[in-house]
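hi! just following up on the protien thing from before. the input was this:
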Amino acid sequence: MMIRKYSFKEDSADFTGQSARVLRDGWEQRKCPSTNFVETHKLQGVGENESGNIPLNFVIGAGVENVLFEDFTENHNKTYFQISNLPTTGEPVGFNMLLRVTTDDNDTENPQEIIIPYSQTRAFQVENLRRVTVQLLDLPVFFQRRVSFYLEKTFCISCSEGGKGNVM
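and the predicted 3d structure came back as:
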């Protein structure tokens, strides 16, 4: 489920780059053009009487790289995500999971690699996230496991006009 939250920037928001200046309560601040706004997307699950970071559960196969998220836009973003390598009921054997994170700062050939140990949850905050993949380690190829994943991405809609170097 994707939840969208739109919010227009206020006159008091401080932005880098060129913009008109206004005086407000004696302070000089940048004025954001009315065409700029920030959007937040959440990739999350649902649950009765639940709120907050409700993860989605993915069933993934061993031995294969599984894409959990991929961004094809040019928009500058700040992204928070959490991923859990939790046991399922009656699961006798633990497994490690290889997490690969690709941002604008690293290329697709050399993503950041993090090992998530069995029965662990990790949270990450990154800038300009492009791709998140996972791969189960130490399991026969025919095995499948459940992985929980939550993601919240905030980005400026009009920042793409200035290229990837533009900031929120």
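The CA atoms of residues 22 and 113 lie 45 Å apart.
The mean pLDDT is 75.
cheers
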